[in-house]
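To illustrate the input format used throughout this study, we show a single complete record. The first block contains the structure-token representation of the backbone; no residue identities are included at this stage. The design step must infer an amino acid for every position from geometry alone.
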């Protein structure tokens, strides 16, 4: 008879990377009394700074969309690998689906335009989670303590940066190497709205912070690079006021939702010409609203001062200048978006803006290892982790 842990592993394969778009279960200005109360608490902290129309969304199960999730699960269950434990798995799946419906009904989302803040708008997201202790999957339950605030700043930080809290260690900032693991989710390239105002995007980024591929990056920077070497991280960790504010938020380690590896309650995510700042809190007490928003403001403000940061208006001006130069140097009839000799639109892409990614010097993993060596740390042949290695560690 397979162990409970084996059943848990099989269950994890069934629900892994299911596509659940929370935005399809959020309805504009349709709020339950509880959802309205939560969004009011989220707003009260900065009410005097409101500067435009507030948009509030309440979670409500979309039966048609959820049916697609149920159908996908039933399709996966037909795999022979689940045959022996089908009866036990069916019970777990039923319980999980019931909790997932409740989760979607508990969500709420708000967009608040602001003045005199590091970002033009702030978003609030309630993050219910289905949780269970390892080996106790039959005791799974819904936790509704999680919240997040997010703002998109008008500056490009040179590297995505994680704020992590390892077990029994002081918190730290760590660089994120490579693209964030969004498990197949691809943002719509045509969506030009601020990313903090996109609930699906926020939801996927926050889920990525829980993945081992992401958490392992914090752990390895802590263990193998002695928490030092990346200029952005070195700069932020020295900001005592910022660290004091971040220490007030409750991470997955603090809440006991997670017991190993590093929890990541905050991120600065580099975009095309801006940076998205997210702070999460899992406290059960009401001060989490104030603590999380305070940490968000200070992390966003500090991001503007990080080494080699580029302001968005500079980036956009450079991009516009490059486009104009390309158009001026293109022969007649061959301009950007022109017609081909056959009469169809030109397939030649516009030259990418020079600032679509960090252009100024950013330390590589090899340079981090060299720094560690100088301080008497690991040897020069210290392994440099790749995305494949991170993924392998997560298995």
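Output of the design step:
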């Amino acid at each position: 008879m397979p162990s409970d842990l084996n059943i848990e592993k099989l269950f994890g394969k069934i629900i892994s990377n299911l596509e659940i778009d929370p935005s399809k279960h959020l309805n504009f200005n349709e709020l339950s009394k509880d959802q309205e109360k939560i969004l009011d608490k989220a707003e009260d902290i900065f009410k005097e700074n409101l500067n435009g129309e507030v948009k509030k969304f309440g979670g409500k199960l979309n039966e048609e969309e959820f049916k697609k999730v149920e159908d996908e699960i039933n399709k996966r269950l037909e795999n022979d690998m689940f045959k022996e434990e089908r009866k036990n798995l069916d019970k777990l799946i039923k319980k999980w689906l019931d909790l997932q419906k409740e989760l979607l009904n508990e969500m709420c989302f708000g967009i608040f335009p602001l003045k005199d803040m590091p970002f033009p708008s702030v978003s609030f997201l309630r993050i219910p989670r289905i949780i269970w202790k390892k080996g106790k999957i039959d005791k799974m339950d819904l936790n509704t303590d999680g919240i997040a605030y997010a703002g998109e700043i008008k500056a490009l930080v040179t590297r995505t940066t994680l704020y992590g809290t390892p077990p029994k260690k002081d918190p730290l900032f760590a660089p994120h190497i490579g693209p964030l693991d969004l498990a197949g989710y691809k943002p719509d390239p045509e969506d030009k709205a601020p990313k903090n105002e996109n609930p699906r995007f926020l939801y996927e980024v926050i889920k990525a912070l829980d993945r081992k591929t992401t958490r392992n990056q914090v752990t390895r920077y802590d263990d193998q690079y002695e928490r030092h070497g990346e200029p952005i991280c070195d700069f932020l960790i020295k900001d005592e006021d910022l660290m004091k504010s971040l220490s007030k938020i409750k991470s997955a380690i603090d809440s006991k939702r997670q017991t190993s590896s590093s929890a990541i309650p905050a991120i600065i995510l580099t975009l095309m010409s801006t940076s998205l700042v997210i702070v999460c809190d899992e406290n059960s007490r009401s001060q989490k609203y104030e603590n999380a928003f305070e940490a968000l403001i200070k992390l966003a403000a500090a991001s503007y001062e990080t080494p080699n940061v580029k302001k968005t208006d500079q980036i956009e001006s450079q991009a516009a200048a490059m486009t104009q130069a390309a158009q001026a140097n293109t022969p007649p009839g061959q301009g950007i978006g022109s017609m081909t000799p056959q009469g169809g639109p030109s397939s030649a892409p516009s030259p990418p803006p020079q600032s679509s990614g960090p252009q100024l010097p950013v330390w590589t993993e090899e340079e981090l290892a060299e720094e560690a060596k100088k301080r008497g740390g690991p040897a020069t042949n210290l392994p440099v982790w790749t995305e494949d290695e991170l993924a392998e560690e997560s298995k």
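Structural context for interpreting the output: Residues 145-315 form one domain. The radius of gyration is 23 Å.
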